[in-house]
Design a protein that fits this description.
Layout: H1 2-23, E1 28-31, E2 36-38, E3 49-54, E4 60-65, E5 69-72, E6 77-78, E7 84-91, E8 95-103, E9 106-114, E10 116-119, E11 124-127
Parallel strand pairs: 2-11
Antiparallel strand pairs: 1-3, 3-7, 4-6, 4-8, 5-7, 8-9, 10-11
């Protein structure tokens, strides 16, 4: 009987671990263009943009860029009660960037083009 109980507890633990990532899925990622203007892209080098991930409240999300770009804060961010985690992204080189929102059990990404940016404080002028 004791072996059966131990086996039942082990099976329950495995099922609980296997089920945990399903609720920890990131359901979306977006990048706000802010007040940028220009002919090539709404995103420019050296300018800051808000990146938002949607996930289950209480989880943590980390962001990273496939190219040279930084996020503030640079560590895992708690998802608030509204199901949203945000960070500020600053691309550092022109070209295609894939931004990733990652957590245990899930990842979403979005691809954006980045032009040469001139940060004017309230706006970003984006050049081809």
């Amino acid at each position: 009987m004791r072996a059966l109980c131990t086996t039942g507890v082990a099976v329950a633990a495995v099922l609980a671990i296997a089920a945990a990532p399903a609720g920890a899925e990131i359901t979306g990622i977006t990048v706000e263009p802010g007040i940028s203007s220009g002919s090539s892209s709404p995103y420019g080098t050296g300018c800051a943009y808000t990146v938002t991930a949607n996930a289950a409240p209480g989880e943590y999300v980390s962001f990273y860029d496939s190219q040279r770009g930084s996020f503030d804060p640079p560590w895992a961010i708690p998802v608030g009660p509204s199901g949203i985690a945000t960070a500020i992204w600053t691309p550092q080189e022109r070209g295609a960037h894939t931004l990733h929102a990652v957590q245990i059990g899930g990842e979403r990404s979005v691809r954006v083009e980045v032009g040469t940016g001139i940060d004017l404080g309230i706006t970003c002028l984006v050049l081809p």
